Amino acid sequence: MIGAAGVSASPELRARLADLYAGYDAALDEGEYERWPEFFTDACIYKITPRENYEAGLPAAMIACESRGMLADRVAAIRETTLYAPRIIRRVMGAPSLLTIEGGQMRLAQSFALFETMLNETSTVFLCGRCYDRVVDDGGTLRFAERICVTDATNIPLSLIFPI
Amino acid sequence: MADGGTAPAARRWPEGGIGRIPNWVYTDPDIFARELDRIFEGPSWLYTCLEAEIPNPGDFKRSRLGTREVVAVRGEDGRIGVLVNRCAHRSMQMCSANRGHVKEFMCPYHQWTYSLDGKLIGVPFRRGLKGQGGMPADFRLEDRGLESLAVTTRNGVVFASFDAPNETLETYLGAKMLDYFDRVFSGRPLEVLGYWRQRIPSNWKLMMENIKDPYHAGLLHVFLITFGLFRLDQKASTEIDDETGRHGVLVSRRDDTMPTDAVAELPQFRDKLKLEDPRLIQPVREFPGEPTVVMQTIWPNLIVQQQSNAMAMRQIVPRDAGNFDLVWTVFGYADDPPDMRERRLRQANLFGPAGLVSVDDSEAMLLSQSGIAAGEDGDCIVEMDGRDAKDSQHMITECGIRGFYQHYRTVMGL
Fold first, then answer.
1. pLDDT block averages, 10 residues each, chain B of length 414
2. If we measure between CA atoms, which residue out of B204, B213, B176, B175 comes closest to residue B399?
3. Residue among B58, B63, B93 nearest B73 (CA)
4. To bridge A135 with a disulfide, which of A106, B77, B269, B302 should be the other Cys (CB 3.0-4.6 Å)?
5. B228–chain A Cβ distance below 8 A for any pair
6. Which long-range contacts (CB under 8 A, 24 or more apart) does B161-169 make?
7. A73, A119, A162: which to substitute to probe chain B, counting the most B Cβ within 10 Å?
8. Which of B302, B328, B367, B351 has its CA nearest to residue A155?
9. Which residues, in sequence order, are bridge partners of residue A20?
10. Are B159 and B63 in contact (CB under 8 A)?
11. A61, B345: Cβ pair inside 8 Å?
12. The whole model's pTM is what?
């Protein structure tokens, strides 16, 4: 069940939203990146951008996908083409808050903390920040039409490889 | 002597000249201290910012040159100054925003105030209060301005120096490098599209070497190879500046020919891989001449990236022998039509801390430093295509790295 912040939403809608987030988080937390694009509409926007750019209205994001296909291409790169040292990124996601419902679009926000464990090293804080989401009913299934992940730090420890 | 390191004077470059790099140049804190002294605070033009970041009088942008914090600011007369971000009073970092606009700089601690050109113009209670306290009679405001650097600009790019070189930026770059610089910075107004930054746990020189090394680009970067953006069988050149070897360019000319057998058979080549959304890499030719990729390294802290339509300044900020920050300023041209701006932002996915190509390099630097730090007595071999520092008309070469070390050894006395 998703908490609503000053907007009225039926228990049914809250439960459907909770299922969307639970499914999304379960897929990413288990590293099932191939399933990641399923949670987005075809013409989705997915970005990871530092707060410094986000607040200044500067458009260059570290990751900027404009379609479900581009999400799939990211996953293919992680699997097939990118060199990276072995590591685990542990996502700890806050409870999403439902902020507004307008014209069939639901806006939500969710904070995140990511921890990084490089092989043979101790665990460290990797990144924290907040996701700003727009969810729509896509033919009977709730999906992300937009997810903007805003990182508090501009300075990234080495590399950002996996989606949030 | 810090951390028990050997004094640089006791270090001996290995046999083999610039074809060999001793591992201690990447790890020794005394070597790092000498680099700060002779390179970053020596007679070098250091990339500081773009003029587009500070278009109006009073606009400022913080930057880091070597390990020193500076503020670039446009003065009342429109000229750009670069000031050390440290109050003359108690050495406090005065300016704590990355960018902004001010009428004057005021240190928040005791409100000492400086004009935009760094002159000290106000000290509260300088003459005391009701006859009590105050600075000694011989205290003079004009003796206590902010430390100010030598500044030079070219076509919208700002360079500064702690120890003004006795050569202009143009001479410093040399005719050949200047032509490549002017190709991107023609005077056409620039637009900053955003900032990225990453902390890389390796020595700063590995970043320079990475961009001076086309040999790795056609092997490591499976994404580039697979999608034909950079292949070892394409027409290319690796050029260094004629005077010293300190600056360099990698130039490649993308063509639509199929990979030659030698490339297609590389274990890295993924011939089955197709992009689901090919908009990611649909470059459009925008510069005159054949080159489609020009990566320029400018001694000691700048990489100018022009990879198809994705452009960025990559500023190297060394932190210690084993760490540096890479600061990316992503830019386009102010008069770009909307579709070109969109294309640049799309292609930006290949670069930066999450870049489909750049991640390979960041991770390679981590692994290089790990290997180097575990065996300081070893040497790296950079003898691909010879042992000297001269241009190559291909990519199977390490001549750019040798050019860098030819100059490095002179400056460092090694």
1. 57 93 96 98 98 98 97 98 98 96 97 98 96 95 97 98 96 97 98 98 98 92 83 89 95 78 72 87 91 96 97 98 98 98 98 97 97 88 96 94 98 96
2. B213
3. B58
4. A106
5. no
6. B161/B43, B161/B44, B161/B45, B161/B46, B162/B40, B162/B41, B162/B42, B162/B65, B162/B66, B162/B68, B163/B41, B163/B42, B163/B43, B163/B44, B164/B43, B165/B43, B165/B44, B165/B45, B166/B43, B169/B45
7. A73
8. B328
9. none
10. no
11. yes
12. 0.96
B276 touching A (Cβ < 8 Å)? yes
- Look at phi and psi of residue B205 and say left if phi exceeds 0, alpha if psi is from -120 to 50, else beta: alpha
What was the pLDDT predicted at B375?
78
Cα-based angle B164, B166, B170 (whole degrees, multiple of 5): 95
Query: Number of residue pairs across A and B with CB atoms under 8 Å?
Result: 126
Contact assignment for B223 to A77 by CB distance below 8 Å = yes
How much is the ipTM here?
A: 0.96
The pairing of strands A155-157 and B190-200 is: parallel
Of A61, A64, A158, the CB nearest to B198: A158
pLDDT digits (tens, 9 = 90+) for A115-163: 999 999 999 999 999 999 999 999 999 999 999 999 999 999 999 999 9
The CA distances from residue B48 to A137, B19, B264, in Å, are: 48, 31, 42
Instruction: Name the token pair of B379.
Output: 């040497």
SS3 assignment, position A63: strand
The two three-digit tokens of residue B348, written as one number = 């930006």
Token pair, residue B334, equals 């102010």
Give me A159's structure tokens: 């590399």
Report CA-CA distances (Å) from B193 to B54, B333, B409. 14, 10, 37
